[in-house]
Amino acid sequence: MSLVHKLEEANAAYRAGDPIMSDAEYDALVEKLRTEHPEHPFLNAVEPEPTEFFGGTKVRHHAPMLSTEKAYTEKDLIRFFGLVERQAALLGIQGLMYAMTVKLDGLAGSRDRARGVELATRGNGLQGEDISSAFARGLKIVGADVDGPGEIVMPQAFFESEMVPLGLKNPRNVMVGFVAAETEKEHHRLIAEAGMAHFMPYQNLPKYYADRDTILRDIQTISESMRKESPYKTDGIVIEIEEPELRAALGSTNHYHRWQIAYKTKGETAETTVTGVVWQTGRTGRITPVIEIEPVELSGATIRRATAHNFQKARKDGLGVGSRVTMIRSGEVIPFIMDVLSPAPLAVPTACPCCGGPVEEEGEYLTCVNPHCEAQAEGAISHFFKIMGTADGFGPKAVEKLVAAGITDILAVLNMTRADFEGMGFGPGQAENLEREMERCMSTPVEDWRFLAAFGIRYLGRGDSKALLGAVGGLDALNGITHEQIMAVNGFAEKTALCIAYDLTWRWMEIDAVRNRMQVPLISSVAAGAVEPLPFSGMNLVFTGTFSKDREALETQAEALGAKVQSSVNGKTSVLVTGEKPGASKTTKAAALGTPVWTEAEYLFRIKG
Predict the structure, then answer these.
(1) pLDDT value at position 180?
(2) What's the average model confidence in pLDDT over 427-439?
(3) What is the pLDDT of residues 509-521, one digit of tens each?
(4) Rounded to an integer, what distance in angstroms lies between the CA atom of residue 541 and that of residue 70?
(5) In whole angstroms, how large is the CA radius of gyration of the chain?
(6) Which of these CATH numbers, 3.10.180.10, 3.30.470.30, 3.40.50.2300, 3.30.465.10, describes 46-263?
(7) What distance lies between CA 251 and its chain's CA centroid?
(8) Cβ-based burial of 406 (10 A; exposed 0-12, middle 13-18, buried ≥19)
């Protein structure tokens, strides 16, 4: 089973309240994937809840609910502080203080009563399920009755005294069951009667403030003290900045906000020897090494395999058989290699370990160039259905069976019938479900950028797909697009533009064929196809200052009305929108460039007009 498949299965089990590994083990596998495949789309997406697991209606979040980037070492924290403080210096912000809260280990949710949502799950970060019925079951809000994100949790003392004797092992799992169970169980009634089902809004958590130097000096003491004071189970602390302008300037990836990070304690280390190297082929054809080591004991567990690196780094570091390495394990985390003490030559394969096809060195990576490689086909099909998010059932085992039967591309899957599935060995019930889910995938409207991102083209995740399509005029404009045209779009450098143009050229027939197979048109990223022009079509807006409502809400609104929202003023900025106490750097830059400036009232007038 591939690393991504392991992560997807572990995440699905965790979200369903029946984890198959610890949080720490999951975090370690994510770090392993980040090391081996730093460009993998899984790393730039919010880990989703199981589709329709809670039985509620679909709810689109007003603002994305993202994951939190993690830090395990002082080096990780220094990198985060450096990013924040470089941006602060550009904005003229001094004396920066960081806010710290505990990181709750619960079920994430969000309230948005202005839009009629009492409570919804995080879902895939953009869309969740309405679980407002949990309040009728006995869920209580802790602290001020506010909107926004938070966590469904249970006091640890109550869990240990009342739930553990019943054989229950984890408070988060119990709360998932409390919210999702169709039939109320005895322990659910006990929880409700005791008032121990809590929704804790993040903004109601106690906050502690310190500067960078204090945090770096006392991080262990701070973390232990804060977590000890929390009545709920925690798995770290969250460090973030609160200045709205600095948050906006730092922005977010598809996966996490750049203005916050979760700190988790560094674990113990041990030295061992590499005894073998296993090579694995991934979805994009990249071949990466998995390092086998002499068994060592870390944190009460026997470790036999370790996180490797991309091909070039593993070769450069000398991660061959016989090399001596230092392993690190944080809590229950599966370790990764922290240092190579005594290098040894790495034997590099000359053929793909999956299909036996030819391989080529491609920058940092070793790549299988056989487009029909089974490992690539499995990854591509799984990735398509995962990113589309409109069909269930195409998990690792199902996709493996499809590829083994000769189905190696997405269009071939979409053309299959129930009889085809049964002919491949799927049972009648599963075959019927797969046909139904496939039809649902083709008949559910999706955004064109999500459709494009589903093909797993290098450097085209969801965010970049949206930016590219919005800039060039939609999906049809990608047919024959050159790397020079892609480079002209803000945010695309020469290396990424070359890769994107190459991949689009040889994948275009497949992309176009799959689009034609869809039973509904894609939702366009550009305003040209709208019946009426959107107010801000083709405009780049920058917001600065304090507004009458949340600035992120204004920015989301502007994007929905056709604008591209920038974090800073530059030559491509169309308008600077200012609230109270606007940032001096942005207003000065706008004046120097002659950029038009609107007040909030002028901005709202143009919407209404």
Answers:
(1) 81
(2) 90
(3) 999 999 999 888 8
(4) 31
(5) 25
(6) 3.30.470.30
(7) 15
(8) exposed
591/576 Cα distance (integer angstroms) = 10
pLDDT of residue 240: 96
Q: Which amino acid is at 21?
A: M
Which amino acid appears at position 507 of this protein?
R
pTM above 0.70, yes or no: no
Measure the CA–CA gap between 425 and 409, rounded to whole angstroms. Answer: 19
Q: According to the 3-state scheme, what is the secondary structure of 210-266?
A: ECHHHHHHHHHHHHHHHHHHCCECEEEEEEECCCHHHHHHHCECCCEECCEEEECCC
Please compute the mean of the pLDDT values over residues 102-124 and round it to a whole number. 88
Query: Quick one: pLDDT band at residue 530, thresholds 50, 70, 90?
Result: very low
Q: Is the pLDDT of residue 53 over 80?
A: no
Q: Rounded to whole angstroms, how far apart are CA atoms 573 and 579?
A: 17
Q: What is the DSSP string of 372-433?
A: T-HHHHHHHHHHHHHHH-S-----HHHHHHHHHTT--SHHHHHT--HHHHHHTT--HHHHHH
Helix %, strand %, coil % of the chain (to 5) = 40, 20, 35
- C-beta of residue 337 within 8 angstroms of C-beta of residue 314: no
Q: Classify domain 374-443 by CATH architecture.
A: Orthogonal Bundle (1.10)
Provide mean pLDDT across the span 185-200. Answer: 89
Percentage of residues in the chain with pLDDT exceeding 70?
Answer: 85
Instruction: Indicate the angle between helix axes 3-15 and 23-36, nearest 10 degrees.
Output: 150
Domain coordinates in residue numbering, the chain? 46-263, 374-443, 448-523, 540-608
Pick one of 1.10.150.20, 3.40.50.1820, 3.40.50.300, 2.40.50.140 as the CATH number of 448-523: 1.10.150.20
Dihedral over alpha carbons 362, 363, 365, 369 (to 10 degrees): -10
Residues 6, 70, 75, 103: which is the catalytic one? 103
pLDDT tens digits, 321-363: 999 988 876 544 456 787 788 999 999 889 988 888 888 887 7
**Catalytic residue check, 495:** no
What architecture does CATH give domain 540-608? 3-Layer(aba) Sandwich (3.40)
Higher pLDDT, 560 or 513: 513
Same CATH topology for 46-263 and 374-443: the answer is no
Angstrom distance (rounded) from CA 202 to CA 327: 35
DSSP string, 286-341: EEEEEEEEEEEEETTEEEEEEB---HHHHHHHTBSTT-EEEEEE-TTPPPEEEEEE
Q: Specify the amino acid at residue 545.
A: G
Spatial contact of 563 and 536, defined as CB atoms under 8 Å apart: yes
pLDDT band at 129 (very low <50, low <70, confident <90, very high): confident
Render 188-208 in DSSP notation, one character per residue: HHHHHHHT--EEEEGGGS--E
For residue 201, is pLDDT > 90?
A: yes
Say whether pLDDT at 55 is over 80. Answer: no
